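Progress note, project year one: complex with PBG.
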Amino acid sequence: MRALTREHRLHPEQLVQPMFIVEEPSSAGPISSMPGIRRMTLQDATREARELYAAGIRSVLLFGTPAHKDAQATSNYKPDGIVQRAIGELKAAVPELLVIADLCNCEYTDHGHCGLLDATGEVDNDRTLELLTATALTYARAGVDVIAPSDMMDGRVGAIRAALDDCDKSHVAIMSYAAKYASAFYEPFREAAGSTPQFGDRRSYQMDPANSREALREVRLDVDEGADIILIKPGLAYLDIVRRVRDEIALPVAVYNVSGEYAMVKAAAAQGWIDESRTVEELLLCFRRAGADMIITYFAKQYAQQVAAQRQ
Ligand code: PBG
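Model obtained:
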């Protein structure tokens, strides 16, 4: 009876595993604030993609760390950049794997901000758009399935959509980080991707955690500009936003269970203060209840393996 009347279910196919890929092999290795997650070389990533697919995970989200960073983020739009090569190799190794590429400049700039800076040190929104469209096209040419712009610059979804369509890449979808909050929960990620801003913060382009109507406005703008999937980030403290967006729009809704949320669970479980597998299952299921169609989570592979083990 309980199974028959259960309102929400969670399936490994609804999960997306983020992957950190480094150009410099010496930068590969564990991430201290994210136990169980590693920075991978291209070779490691190909092996991992096969393992993920075998475990039942059908989608990955790629982040790249280039060997070279500069103020113009030039390593981001090189046709043979680290993400472009990873897309090619992963699609060749596991053609059925859905490859999503995060699109942002913060991992590629030496100052760690998400865009080009003007003379006063502020992010120049419109010049950053040119950089984003150039990079998006190189990802598309490398064979990416979905592009996920994560920087919250105004007008980026429309600019990327137009550039893709102009270059015969209309089949490439856009998953837009439509409502991304300026959050303390991203800290471990910045260690993982080496993208901590060298000065200032991201509050001029990310949203104030106090606001929810603003999230709906941002979401509607991205829908109008041609987004295919709407992403809310972070997850745990923002389930009300997930629900409001789910009720408001018809597009698929994704939620990002971010690095700090992962680190909290891992830290408490390591102390023996919570039961890790029950906690993970509950958290992921509650994202579904809140209205998320898909969940980007560092727990993806672990959860898929947990489900497989329970079946045996
Ligand atoms: C920006 C980006 C960030 C995350 C995903 N894309 C960091 C930021 O905005 O500072 C955070 C993801 C996480 O914390 O897991 N490229």
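The two ends are 23 Å apart (CA to CA).
The pocket of PBG is lined by residues 102, 104, 106, 150, 186, 189-190, 202, 258-259 (CB under 6 Å).
No further modelling is planned for this target in the current period.
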